[in-house]
Amino acid sequence: MEKILEVKNLTKKFKHIAVNNISFDVEKGNVYGLLGPNGSGKSTTFGMLLSTINPTSGSWKWFGKDGTDTETLKKIGAIIEQPNFYPYLSAEKNLQIVAEIKGVSEKRIDEVLDIVNLLARKKDAFRTYSLGMKQRLAIASALLADPEVLILDEPTNGLDPEGIIQIREIISKIAKSGTTIIVASHLLDEIEKICSHVIVLKQGTAIYSGSVDAMSNTKGFFELKADDMSQLISALESFGIFSSIKEHDNLIVAQISEDISASELNRKLFDKGIALAHLQKKKESLETQFLELVKQNNL
Amino acid sequence: MIRLLKLEYLKNLNYNPFRIFTLLYFLVLTLLLFIGLVDFDLAGLKVNLKEQGMYNFPGIWNFTTYIVGLLKIFLGCIIVFSICQEFSNRMFKQNIIDGLSREEFIASKLLTILVFTIFSTLLVFVIALVLGKTYSDTQDSELIFKEIYFIFNYFLKLFTFFTFLMFLSVLFRKSIFVFLGFFMLWFAEGIFSGIEKFTLLKNVAQKDKARVMLEHHFISDYLPLESMSSLIPNPLVRTKMAQMIGMDFKFEYPVSSVIACAVWSLIFIGGSYLILKKKDW
Q1: Taking CB atoms and an 8 Å limit, are B10 and A85 in contact across chains?
Q2: Are A100 and B101 a contacting pair at CB < 8 A?
Q3: Residue A185's beta-bridge partner residues?
Q4: A53 → closest Cβ in B7, B99, B280
Q5: CA of B72 to nearest chain A CA: how many angstroms apart?
């Protein structure tokens, strides 16, 4: 796999340590989530990778080239924290400035404005835009130079549900076109919906880096329900393939230790004379996995 | 370079304070050059600067550049607003992320400064030349361009002043602090100069004081605002009125001030660049 970005031992100290010795790789074509609570160093990491913050130590390579120069930046589309534009200029004029900096044709402006549904408002001053429109304009601006990588820092921060859905749809459309995306968020379901890989930050330290599926080492769990709950519990215990069996909200939650399919389990229970009223095999949500990770790595 | 000029054009031309101040500046500048044609009433005394020799070659270069030099704060406001809004709107950071280098950012601001400075200088030169041709008592071709260096000094004075304001804008990033910083330096220079002169003259006999004041090179003469103001001396002593009461106009070309200004400009440009480079945005 072609590596878009390789980060090695990146560290930033302000008065405190904001980013502590983190390393990760980003491969082409994947959607990466940079996950972590507020203040865990996500924006600082992006700041260093985008050359706005000077690192204390460590190194990185974009497209196999050391550091971040202006040529590299022109290949990256980035939205940082909040949409930044000249408030007194129209969307069109603002994008003209970006086009001029990035050295792309102004013909692209209408194309990207169309992608984010702002073509009709292109002559209006940026300051008259709603937050959702501002955020969409920021995405348009990031897409202007047909970037190889898209960096999104909290792209849905402060948006209403409709705005969140719009942004999410735009992002998944871009992801499908094969653009590598790195998205930072503290909204876990957000990441879960769009990312294939995650990097989990906690107090500046990367506590996990890899695919979403491999994040949790558990094999998932079953939710079950039957008329005779105690009979069900003893039957499940007799199989010896569950690490724990608990009753929770009128459901039995059985953690899997040896993998078994739902239909197989159903057949086994039926053989024991138990008819199930409810059976579902589930993976832990990213949220549970994340919280578990954070708990394990309590520094 | 064309790219950077176009960027500045896009950024500034639709910025209202920018447009209004630019328009006002060039309007007032042009009007002020014609001030010699107006009669003033100074405590019952009728004063007309044209009659006082304002438009006579070669003094005209001194008079005009000195008078319009007072207007530079207007243009300074434009430059301060234009640079500070880059920071207050977080556009400097965004420009960097979009792929503008810090060098290009400084260069684009310097280009704006140069465009303004060159345009002001040309305007003053042309209008003063026309006024001199029309109203000067002498039309001796040797005298016409004898003190033309004031036009160059005017250019340098504006350029140094604007790079100074650019530096303050990059340093403080808020226009209100830029103006505060500017006035602070103004007072600081005055106080420093006062202290320096006082300590030197304390031990000098009364009769030698004037000579020492004239001959001694004070450190405070090389401070930014002082060296800028020495580039163009106050032409009041050149008026006929002042000459009549026996005031003597003595002026040597201020080579050391020219050098000081050039050095300060370089320091301000370099300093601005270092701040952009070293700070985390």
Answers
A1: no
A2: no
A3: A35
A4: B280
A5: 26
Tens of pLDDT along chain A (299 residues)? 688 999 999 999 988 888 988 888 898 888 898 888 778 888 899 999 999 999 999 999 999 899 899 999 999 999 887 899 999 999 999 999 999 999 999 999 999 999 888 999 999 999 999 988 999 999 999 999 999 999 998 888 878 888 888 888 888 888 888 899 999 887 777 777 778 888 888 888 888 888 877 776 667 788 898 888 888 888 888 888 888 888 888 888 888 888 888 888 889 888 888 888 899 888 777 777 777 777 776 65
Note the pLDDT of residue A217.
60
> Domains in chain A, start-ordered, CATH in brackets?
3-213 (3.40.50.300), 221-283 (3.30.70)
Q: For residues A147 and A184, what is the distance between their CA atoms, to the nearest angstrom?
A: 18
Q: Are B61 and B250 in contact (CB under 8 A)?
A: no
Whether residue B233 has a cis bond before it, omega within 30° of 0: no
Consecutive H or E run containing A131: helix A131-143
Q: Which helix (H) or strand (E) holds A281?
A: strand A276-282
Residues in chain B: 281
Residue type, A55: P
Contacts of A54 in chain B (CB under 8 A): 278, 280
Beta carbons of B97 and A86 less than 8 Å apart: no
Nearest to A70 among B101, B280, B281 (CB): B101
Segment B113-131, tens digit of pLDDT: 999 999 999 999 999 999 9
Rounded to an integer, what distance in angstroms lies between the CA atom of residue B281 and that of residue B263? 28
B119: how many CB neighbours lie within 10 A of its CB? 14
**Residue B6 with chain A: CB contacts under 8 Å:** 100
Which of B6, B89, B90 lies nearest to residue A100, judging by beta carbons? B6
Q: What is the three-class DSSP state of A1? A: coil
- Spatial strand order of the sheet with A251-256 comes to A242-248, A251-256, A221-226, A276-282
The complex scores an ipTM of 0.86
| Helix extents (H) in chain B | 2-12, 16-33, 59-69, 72-88, 91-98, 102-135, 141-144, 149-172, 175-201, 209-215, 224-230, 240-244, 255-278
CB contact under 8 A, B96 and A51: yes
Q: Give the pair of three-digit tokens for residue B114.
A: 């140069």
Structure tokens at A32: 């990466």
Residues of chain B found within 8 Å of residue A52, distances taken between Cβ atoms: 93, 96-97, 280-281
Contact between residue B144 and residue B132 where contact means Cβ atoms under 8 Å apart: yes
Under DSSP, is residue A259 helix (H, G, I), strand (E, B) or coil? coil
pLDDT at residue B92 tops 90: yes
Q: A54 vs B280: CB contact, 8 Å cut-off?
A: yes
Query: Residues in chain A whose beta carbon is closer than 8 A to a beta carbon of chain B?
Result: 14, 47, 50-54, 70-71, 73-74, 76, 78, 80, 82, 84-89, 93, 96-98, 100-103, 141
pTM score, two decimals?
A: 0.85
Q: How far apart are CA B247 and CA B10, in angstroms?
A: 51
Interface test with B, best of A11, A43, A52 (most B CBs within 10 A): A52
Q: Where are the domains of chain B?
A: 2-278
Cα radius of gyration rounded to whole Å, chain A: 24
